User: Fold these one by one.
Assistant:
Number 1:
Amino acid sequence: MTTPTHWLVDIEIMPEDVNRMTYALARLRDGREGHASAIEASGHARRNPADFPRPELGAELAATRAVTALARKMQAHAAEDLSVLATPPAHSSGW
């Protein structure tokens, strides 16, 4: 039986009332022993000045956009890993 691997995603929400902006940073930490890798992605949301202030909506939108960007980066990393595995080793002439 294989041992489960745990990956942790941390989302930091940073609202800015002055600019009506909310920023989010999503960070994936690979929990495998001996690995200290992390992938980061960001997202933001801007409130229209005519809209009623609802900070939780800005946080949700910014976090969703950060996680979506993180997923795209993870997919790109996986595609790179697959392309390396699919590439046959270079033939050596033995010289």
Note: DSSP finds one helix and three strands in the chain.
Number 2:
Amino acid sequence: MAASEPVVGPRVLVVVATKHGATREIAEAIVRDLAVSDDGRAMRLTALRQEAEHAPGPAGFDAVVIGSAVYAGRCRPRPATDVRGSTAVGLLVGGG
């Protein structure tokens, strides 16, 4: 989505924290599949993937997916953003 395009449908923010990139690949697939699915196209849904360190707050998004790699039972540092006020929140847990 170009910055100059008007947003007319729901917006989804996918925030990801990963060590080796596997969780990022899952997040990229989620963003891609949301946008090109029949329902996503019908709703004119847009999805944005951001690394946790650079993610904007959830204001202006209708849903937030938080993705983190897990090592030894612990999430990567800073996997989450403050999602208070978000309509929907999802959790993605990956292995790398």
Note: The chain has one domain: 11-94.
Number 3:
Amino acid sequence: MRIYIFISSPQSVVKGTVNARTRLEAVGYVEVEKMFIDRHPHTVVRMTGEGREAFENYREHLSGLLRDDRR
């Protein structure tokens, strides 16, 4: 599964988004690559294998909660 988020301008980045990305990077769930394309800064964030596994576990947990709630 690939999730792409495109941010059109630096003004659209809120402080919480940057902090969340930093925390995800610190625990190894994402890799961040910063570069310039045509003299414009670009940041690429990729989910790691560990991040994919953690996300899948999270989805399974939420699905379990929803199943339990329907009973």
Note: The chain has two helices and two strands.
Number 4:
Amino acid sequence: MASYQRLTAMSGEKAVRLAADYLPGRIPLEVVSQDHHSVTLEGVDGRVTVSAHSHGLETEVTVATDQVSTSRIDVEAQHYLNQLPYQPEDQQRA
């Protein structure tokens, strides 16, 4: 129901791996499917899919959830996006 996007200097594959590691550490989620471009996690709070597509030097990361934008899973999804470096010289926060 909710969707968020962010551009990052991180590669798409790395952004997907980070989501698979980071989100279950913040909220009870398990990976139900994953490939090089996306990961889907699910738990009692709902379902979230993170997809990443590289365009030149930047990657567009999209996070979609099955919850309303004020839910716990949406707050954590937005927090994940804020961990991604925007510029190549920026440090990853997570």
Note: The helical segments are 12-26, 72-82.
